[in-house]
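User: I've been going back and forth on whether these two constructs are worth ordering. Before I decide, could you fold them both?

Assistant: Sure. I'll take them in the order you sent them. The first construct and its structure tokens:
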Amino acid sequence: MADIEIKVGDLNDPAIDEIINLQASLRRQEGEFIDSVKTPFYLNAMFYYGIAGFLGGFLAWLILEPFINDSDDGIPFLSDYILFGSAAASTGMMIGIAYGIVNRNVKQALYAGIVGIGVGLGITIPTTMLADILYGIAISIAYSVQGDFSHLQSENAYPFTGGAFFLHMCGRSLAWAIVSVGAGLGLGVALKAKKLILNGVAGSLIGGALGGLLFDPITRFITNGSGDAAVSRAVGVVAVGLFVGIFIGFFENTSKEAWLLMVKGPLTGKQFNVFKSPMIIGSAPKADVYLFKDSDIDPTHASISKVGSKYKLKDEGSASGTFVNGRKIDSYILQSGDVVTFGETVLKYHERSNS
């Protein structure tokens, strides 16, 4: 290739200044375009996990309620497990499916949904045992604090008032928090991500506790202790699913250290959290960051790994290459604000500031 020769006269040529100004203008416009891309509310994890959890809780209640008889106490552990195991399985399934749907990955949705069912049913066995023990202790304390039951007008009337009511409500909330843990673990198990498992535990504990808090006030003040707990169960179980989903999304949003925001591609505005190391980026459905509808992206195109406190992007021998800020790279330590390109897909890298 011949050398490019620049003469002294070219430096004073107004046409050169125009070209330089045009290039600078284009770079500014590209930067403004990238910075203008925001995540829409429906791609926020709190929204789609919350909707998924709500549907999961409602589905479990809808299926089970016709078979529940409040006048028949049944076998305590078995009846509790059937209700909460089903709720955990249904909620875990819907959260897993939601994750796959948002990523437009049908195989991932099916797999994560199935794992959510299995984990929900399995984990709820020991959590139900522990929850029953703790609730039994709480209700015994509530009875001892209440002492006088002269306020009862019928056998179905709510037995607790004052401090005893508060203790009973807190005891149920604690039990529901524990028994709901299985609802939030499925996605993390399916994706083999410790961070998502921890988010699931935290979200489920808070979601279950809030759902449990609603049960007794509804029974006492709305249904007047009629003995029919269908309304309380409906609100409680659906609230558990809703709050579990919302708080899993909340902890996913607040605990993320690094993420990629798609600024050009089929999921523009979607954030891909870096939740494990390494994270595979590619066009294969099993990739952690699934980039579809781009023929220039290989099934295993690149990976992101944690190196100390930073993250390294590595090209995995792709045909079209991996680019950071317009430069082709083999491996690169990412900095917040870097623009990463795979084929026709463009993402902006973000890091949470430690300051």
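The second construct, handled the same way:
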Amino acid sequence: MDRTQAYNDVIRFHGHECPGAAFGVRVAEAALTALAPKDPATPLVLVSETDACAVDALQVLTGCTYGKRNLIHEDAGRNVFTLWERDGSSGVRIRAKADSIVFRTEEIWALSTRIDDGTATLEDEAAFARLQGERIAGLLSVADDDILGVERVEKPAPGVKHLARTDLCVDCGEPTSVETLHDHRGRMVCPACHLAAHGGVLPEGHGDHGHHPQSHKHHHEHKH
């Protein structure tokens, strides 16, 4: 992978330069090196534990996207990414190393806070741009070991999420996947209407019950 070209491709998709995009390039590069798919067209599967900028880089460079259902978001607020070949029995887990340039310093956080709340001076803005530029350059040039923890994961890739039928929510009337409709007191409702029916807070253990008769979960329950 030509790292500079890869970063430029990511920026065209992402819309602006930033350290997160640069970090995502390094994650994608490390993942493709570790997995070493024999056929570049082999579909990969990605579980991302963040929704930050790096995910755009991984979409561009690995081909894992929400639309193809091979990008799974499990938000843990962590810069951690696990990738497999589609039918792989093991994968690779890549994380950002603590205290590395992946993360903002206190100085950068202070500058960004002032920029966000409108109190930054021109000097603040210039300093922020300089420090972020230095991080981008560093992220595109330092050794993998300086920023990435890479380990094998001995478990199979997540299964493919298939398209599901839709049915109407009886409250709002909108077509909703049968996989997300809930049986609320004998009425099939979408998650938003289900939440509203409980006054905005679901009782503990109440979020996964009464599945639609055509849902995968319903059929799975009745097999056991």
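Notes on the second construct follow. The chain has a mean pLDDT of 91. The CA atoms of residues 20 and 54 lie 5 Å apart.
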